[in-house]
Specification:
The complex is a heterodimer of chains A (263) and B (274). Chain A is an all-alpha fold. Helices cover 76% and strands 0% of the residues of chain A. Chain A folds into two domains: 42 residues; 214 residues, Orthogonal Bundle (MetI-like fold). The two termini of chain A are 30 Å apart. Chain B has 274 residues and is an alpha/beta fold. Chain B contains nine helices and ten strands. In chain B, a hairpin with a 2-residue loop joins β4 and β5. In chain B, α4 runs antiparallel to α5. In chain B, 40% of the residues are buried. The chains are: A mainly alpha (263), B alpha/beta (274). Chains A and B meet through α7 and α8 of A and β6 and α3 of B. Bound molecules: adenosine-5'-diphosphate and magnesium ion. The site of adenosine-5'-diphosphate has 14 residues of chain B, from α1.
Chain lengths: 263, 274
């Protein structure tokens, strides 16, 4: 019987998840192992593991390329993420608190959510050069256009009674926003932060495509240039893993900070 | 203590629910002078009770000029916006879920207005007294999610009374509570009122509640709302079962019910609970 609200036992849940992943791995192994798909297009899982080990520790150079790349990419996402929050949250709060600010800024922000941010990257390079600055700016731009509208919507979703009640208790308009609306909007603002930081991981390859000395995106681009498909796959997997870890970590943090949100 | 709320020829129209319709006249020419005591405001739902209450509290809607006609005097002075003397309690308690019961009650003291007026030591003392009065002293460190609906409403009530308002405006405050909790809250209100007498305006659509609590009962007619009935109850509180069943009380109840049925003409609904 189909029941959309069924609570699955954790064994069943895990079993189904592991099952589907294993199935894909088996299909992958068969397709590549029996050379049903050309090796140059689809490396075998064990080749990827080999590539992973090689990248994780280069015996000749005595260094871990993968670790260096990961560190560089994580730093970029981290720096851009902090800037995104420092700018996106206050701007979103202002837009949510003031219809005038919202009317003025939303035509500048909202369209970018569906704009081809990736196509803007060459422009960024032209304007801000090929160094760190343009990479961070690109990540920032890609993420902040998600965060700002989400913060604004979070503010507007707070029931008006909270504002009215605070004003009635003697709060100035700003005090009512500060002590009644913003605290209520915090969980949804946190959702916005989670989404926009996650989005950055999807942009990291584009950001690092031009003139990155080191980074996961650069690792993928270089590997592709040298037709090393296994390394490309490793790069992709590592980015996915980092994105998942970031997501899980931030979701955990959100639950810790706002345990009351579920009500 | 002299405190008064005066409505002079108050009228209120709202924009129509759909685009292009005519303005809806919700309240027409209400003249009313309220003094200290518990004033019960009754009327079918949608007749404009909240509208009137908000006007008295200085809460104005954003979408329309308010009031459309007339003026409000609080302590004989015109009132056009938020007023320090008047505090409202809503049916949805509007408690902060992230703050403890104590911090919720103390919330107004975070606002510049009260921070300046009430010294820190007195703030703490008032909060403690209020927590004691509403019976939440032991739950002071819990958060709203750990409380029942009635307890949450106690928090909201304490937060209002901690400011010692001369005017307390309550908009169907116990409407969302179950019958037994509502009864407890009614007794609590009677107790608190004795400790801290003021001018209370209490909106309800429950006739029994009106007769149990009110010094004065005002009944509104609907669309546009005018004062259809206005009488006083001299029976001291708390009012006994015996009084509730007396001919005096029964007659009052019938009088109100008839008025409500007459004026609601099927538009509103009246809850009768005994
Ligand atoms: N700000 C507003 N804008 C438009 N219509 C409103 C507004 N406030 C109330 N109304 C309408 O006025 C009528 C009376 O509302 P209200 O005063 O809340 O009634 P009550 O509290 O008696 O149920 C309702 O039909 C409501 O939809
Ligand atoms: Mg109402």
């Amino acid at each position: 019987m189909w029941n959309p609200y069924q609570e699955l036992p954790s064994g069943t849940r895990r079993g189904l998840g592991i099952g589907s992943v294993s199935l894909v791995l088996v299909i992958w192994a068969v397709l590549s192992g029996l050379s049903l798909v050309a090796k140059a297009k689809l490396p075998a899982p064990w080749e990827c593991i080999d590539a992973f080990i090689q990248l994780a520790w280069d015996v000749e150079k005595g260094e871990s390329l993968l670790w260096l790349a990961t560190k560089a990419s994580v730093m970029r996402v981290l720096v851009a993420g902090v800037v995104v929050c420092l700018i996106g949250i206050p701007v979103g709060i202002l837009m949510g608190a003031s219809p005038k600010v919202n009317s003025a800024l939303s035509p500048l922000v909202d369209p970018f959510r569906s704009a081809p941010i990736v196509a803007i990257q060459p422009v960024m390079v032209m304007w801000f050069g090929i160094d760190e600055l343009s990479k961070i700016l690109f990540l920032f731009l890609g993420a902040v256009v998600y965060l700002i509208p989400m913060v604004r919507d979070a503010m507007q979703a707070v029931p008006r009674t909270y504002y009215i009640s605070a004003r009635d208790l003697g709060a100035s308009p700003w005090e009512a926003i500060r002590h009644a609306v913003i605290p209520m909007a915090m969980p949804r603002i946190a959702d916005g932060v989670i989404v926009s930081i996650s989005v950055m991981w999807t942009y990291i390859t584009v950001a690092e495509y031009v003139n990155a000395k080191v980074g996961l995106g650069q690792l993928i681009a270089n590997s592709k240039r040298f037709s090393s498909m296994p390394k490309v796959f490793v790069g992709i997997f590592v980015i996915v893993a980092l994105a998942l870890i970031t997501y899980a970590g931030m979701t955990w943090l959100k639950k810790k900070l706002f345990p009351w949100e579920a009500t | 203590m002299s405190v008064s709320v005066e409505l002079k020829g108050i009228g209120q129209s709202y924009p129509p629910p759909e685009e292009g319709g005519e303005m809806v006249e919700v309240v027409r020419d209400v003249n009313l002078t309220l003094g200290p005591g518990i004033n019960m405001l009754l009327g079918p739902s949608g007749c404009g009770k909240s509208t009137l209450l908000k006007l008295m509290g200085g809460v104005r809607p954003y979408n329309v000029t308010s009031p459309t006609a007339g003026e409000i005097l609080i302590n004989e002075e015109p009132c056009t916006g938020p007023h320090d003397d008047a505090v409202m309690v809503f049916q949805t308690y509007a408690n902060r879920p992230d703050l403890s019961v104590r911090d919720n009650v103390a919330l107004p003291f975070r606002f510049g207005l009260w921070k300046k007026r009430v010294p820190q030591a007195e703030q703490d003392q008032r909060v403690n007294e209020m927590l004691e009065s509403v019976g939440l002293a032991e739950k002071a460190e819990l958060v709203p999610a750990q409380l029942s609906g009635g307890q949450n409403q106690r928090v909201a009530l304490a937060r209002a009374l901690v400011l010692r308002p001369r005017i307390l405006l309550m908009d169907e405050p116990f409407g969302a509570l179950d019958a037994q909790t509502r009864e407890e809250m009614q007794h609590l209100l009677i107790k608190l009122y004795k400790q801290q007498p003021c001018l209370v305006v209490f909106v309800t659509h429950d006739v029994t509640e009106a007769l149990l609590l009110g010094d004065r009962v005002l009944v509104l007619s609907t669309r546009p709302a005018t004062i259809a009935d206005d009488f006083e109850i001299s029976e001291p509180r708390p009012r006994s079962q015996t009084w509730s069943r007396s001919t005096e009380a029964t007659k009052m109840k019938e009088r109100v019910l008839n008025q409500l049925h007459e004026s609601s003409t099927g538009k509103g609904s009246v809850r009768v609970s005994i």
